[in-house]
């Protein structure tokens, strides 16, 4: 841990002085910034828990403005568990009533969504389904929702940034009361996809197939942990911006299944001919 932290600190110090560098040393400055991003990618691989606040805004395009805002609670050990709350979901100016929430514990997913219940024909506030059953029953609406829920992944997101060839330091800023170094750059989707989990690679490439380059900003603290990440780009006239603020690294979290009397199973006949 100590050598890795020393490397990250050295990279941050080297980048911080970029304004005083001569033209002949620009290559070393770029390398230092790239090393700092690599260090952040390595550090998030060691994170066992965190919380995050997320905002996704989209404007323009055929569907008009949309917004998704919520929070994520993540635990990697002793077993994988996540609690995702989407308080605001708006598409084309239309608000999705009640938002949505998904809790994943082990291989079981609990979903709370008025819209999803309408499609699935569920009678309880929460719907329970195992990931194995989800694949076997081909429940299109549930699978689509869970794909969106599972798309965001801290480690995978930061790993994508390491594909950047133009990352640079743009100064220091305070994020959530923590001093950080701000990095900015772009990355090609095709190359970035190779850095993430193969199970998520195809979905990422499909969703971002029309986006040539994504712009990113990373705010990394003195321990090379990402305190904030933003992604932005455009696709067929639609401009999107995703902002994620991180905190509570490696702190204890409480993620539990909802009360049993509020949980129902996904109707077996839904989505079948």
Q: How would you characterize the overall build of this protein?
A:
This protein is α+β, with helices and mostly antiparallel strands. It has a domain of 101 residues. The chain is built from eight helices and 13 strands. α1 packs antiparallel against α2 and α2 packs antiparallel against α6. The protein is globular, with a radius of gyration of 20 Å. The N terminus is likely disordered.
Short description:
It contains eight helices and 13 strands.
Key features of this structure:
273 residues, alpha+beta, 13-stranded mixed beta sheet, 30% helix, globular, disordered N terminus
Question: What structural class results from the helix and strand content?
Answer: alpha+beta
Beta fraction of the residues? Answer: 35-45%
N-to-C series of helices and strands? HHEEEEEEHEHHHEEHHEEEE
Mind describing the biggest β-sheet?
13 strands, mixed
Let me know the average pLDDT: 75
Helical region count? 8
Q: Cα-atom Rg, whole angstroms?
A: 20 Å
Cα shape: globular
Spans of at least 5 consecutive residues whose pLDDT stays below 50 are 1-31
Q: What is the number of beta strands?
A: 13
User: Helical percent range?
Assistant: 25-40%
End-to-end span in angstroms?
55 Å
């Amino acid at each position: 841990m100590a050598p890795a932290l020393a490397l990250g600190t050295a990279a941050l110090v080297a980048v911080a002085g970029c304004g005083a560098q001569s033209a002949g040393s620009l290559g070393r400055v770029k390398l230092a910034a790239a090393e700092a991003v690599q260090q952040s990618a390595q550090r998030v691989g060691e994170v066992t828990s965190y919380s995050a606040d997320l905002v996704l805004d989209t404007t323009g395009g055929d569907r008009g403005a949309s917004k998704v805002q919520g929070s994520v609670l993540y635990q990697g050990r002793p077993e994988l568990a996540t609690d995702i709350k989407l308080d605001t979901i708006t598409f084309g100016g239309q608000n999705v009533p009640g938002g949505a929430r998904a809790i994943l514990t082990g291989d079981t997913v609990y979903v709370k969504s008025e819209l999803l219940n309408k499609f699935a024909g569920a009678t309880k506030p929460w719907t329970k389904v195992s990931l194995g059953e989800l694949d076997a029953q081909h429940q299109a609406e549930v699978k689509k929702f869970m794909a969106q829920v599972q798309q965001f992944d801290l480690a995978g997101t930061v790993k994508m940034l390491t594909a950047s060839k133009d990352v640079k330091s743009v100064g220091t800023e305070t994020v959530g009361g923590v001093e950080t170094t701000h990095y900015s750059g772009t990355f090609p989707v095709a190359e970035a996809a190779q850095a993430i989990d193969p199970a998520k690679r195809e979905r990422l490439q499909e969703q971002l197939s029309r986006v040539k380059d994504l712009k990113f900003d990373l705010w990394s603290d003195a321990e090379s942990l990402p305190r904030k990440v933003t992604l932005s780009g455009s696709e067929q006239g639609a401009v999107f911006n995703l902002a994620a603020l991180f905190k509570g690294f490696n702190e204890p979290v409480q993620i539990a299944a909802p009360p049993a009397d509020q949980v129902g199973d996904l109707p077996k006949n839904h989505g079948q001919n």
